[in-house]
Each structure stands twice: as structure tokens, then as C-alpha cells.
Amino acid sequence: VRRANRTAVPEESLLLRASTLAAVMTGVVALAADGIIDSPTAGVTLAVLPVAHYISWRRRDKDNWHMKVAIALGAIVALVRFFNSLNEIDTFDAIRYPLAEVFLWVQLLHSFDVPQRRDLGFSLGSSLVLMATAASISQDLTFGILAIVYVFFAAQALVLSNRSFMQQGTIGVATARARGSGRAHLSRAAAITVVFAFVAFSL
Q1: If DSSP states are collapsed to H, E and C, what string results for 77-136?
Q2: Predicted TM-score of the model (pTM)
């Protein structure tokens, strides 16, 4: 069990982890801003997420099998609560609210064990679901501001993830010149995604 759960290649980039965390937290803020989750839930989630990511980073090279078991049990509880809440749903459209909540709790639980780059990618993908749910409810321009903030952090996380992928030698070794132009590439990618996000949100 320990060999099966041992992290093969732990992700060492703190900036990648911070960007992913910021994107996830932006998704939580978006849910709270649109009233999909209440303020206490948002406050607890925003307080626990940094702690969970810090614990995950400190234990990134451990097997963490006991933590995986606890996360799996917590996810089952969240799923059971989701199905129970469906009994109170009157319309198909209202299912977005309990769905957002179950995604939120799974995201929170998963944050305690994100040792590898692919785990961070899963968190980033889940944060996109949170943002999409908030977008489907939003009625004002507040979400537009949060969308711009989100795509900035998400774009940064994607670029840093790709850089980490290259530096590990999976598809080749990055040259010194490529590393030197990394910040410029990151800035261009973030600027482009912000522009496209603004256009998409306006439409």
C-alpha cells in the first residue's frame, strides 16, 4: 500500500501551487458573491484551503495513505449529502446549488493531498467548474471582475505547469534562453487570456 501511494515525482514549484490555490479561492469567492454558498461556508473554506495546501506541500514526498483514506471517506459523505439534498429540489435548474456545494467540499478535501503536478491540475479543473457554476447564476458585473482575476491565476498556473513538465525532461530539457524568457511568455499568456475572458463574458 505504501509503495502504491508513494508520490513518483513531487511538484516542487511553490509558484505553481500558489497560482492554483489563488484560482481555487477565486472560484470560492465567486460562489459566495452570487449567493450560491453562504458566508460562513465561504469563510471556513477560504481559511482552510491555504492550510490544506501547505500541509500537502510539506508532505509532498510522503505516501500519505492514511490521508487518502480520510479524503475518500469525506468524499463519500459529501456525495451522500448531495443525493439527500436532491429530495428538496423542485426544479432541474436548482440542482446547481447542491452540485456546487459537493464540488466545493471535494475540492477542499482534495487540497490536503496534492503532491504532484497532475493533482494540482485536477484542482485547477475543479475550480473551473466552480467558476462556471457562478457564471450561470451571475446577474451583474461583479463576476466579470472575478473572471478576469481567475483567468490570470489560471493562465499563470497552466504556464508554470507546462514549464515544470519540460524541466523534468518528459518532453525535453528547457534551454537557458527559454527559461530566461519565461516571465515574458507568462505575461503574454495572461494578457491574452484576460482579453478573451472579457470578450466571452461580455457576450
Answers
A1: HHHHHHHHHHHHCCCHHHHHHHHHHHHHHHHHHHCCCCCCHHHHHHHHHHHHHHHHHHHH
A2: 0.75
